[in-house]
Every structure is written in C-alpha cells, then in structure tokens.
Amino acid sequence: KRTATLVASLPLPLATAADISADGRRMLVATYLDGYEYSRRKDESWKDALSRKPRAVSLPRRAQGEAACYAADGRAIYLTSEKLPTPLWELPLQNEE
After folding, report:
1. Rounded CA gap, 25 and 93, in Å?
2. CB distance 67 to 50 below 8 Å
3. How far apart are CA 10 and CA 32, in angstroms?
4. What is the pLDDT of residues 37-59, one digit of tens each?
5. 35 touches 77 (CB < 8 A)
6. 23, 39, 43, 76 — which has fewest CB within 10 A?
7. What's the predicted TM-score (pTM) here?
8. What is the DSSP string of 39-80?
9. What does the alpha-carbon distance between residue 27 and residue 44 come to, in Å, rounded to a whole number?
10. Using omega within 30 degrees of 0 as the cis cutoff, is the peptide bond preceding 85 cis?
11. Domain range annotation of the chain
C-alpha cells in the first residue's frame, strides 16, 4: 500500500499547477498570476529545498491558467489554459549556470 506524505506547505497563493524537471533538480509551481521555481542541490531532499525562498518566474496572463510543465531539456516551460481555442505558450528559462 502506498501512502502520501506531506513534504511541505508552500506559502503561495492560488497554486494551480506544478512540475518537476526531468533531471529532478527544479520544481515549478504556477499560480493564476505568477510562477515560482525551487531548486534542489545534489542529494538534497525536497523538504529542505522547499524551505528556501523560490525564484520568481513571470508568466504571461492566462485565462484560468491551470497547466504548466518543463520542456524535456529543462530550458523552457509550457503553459496552457482553459480558454478556447486553447493557447500554448513556451517560456524560455534563465540558465542557472
């Protein structure tokens, strides 16, 4: 039997979507207005990483923007909303290196 365990309670208003990058080092949390990206150090737990202040990510205005994911290479995020026709945005991310 699998049981969910609370890892953190994030102080973010109206969170609507979240994704973890393919390399497992970054987590994006999108809200109706903005995005926040948490970074995890090598061998660090998500609990510890989520205790730090996230980096703000400016997102385009979206009508009921409730979906976000990282590109496979982690260099961009994709966003969509419930509007018709359904828009798809690609937002390049800053290189942390």
Report:
1. 14
2. no
3. 15
4. 999 999 999 999 999 999 999 99
5. yes
6. 43
7. 0.88
8. E--TT--HHHHTTSPPEEEE----TT--EEEE-TTSSEEEEE
9. 13
10. yes
11. 15-92
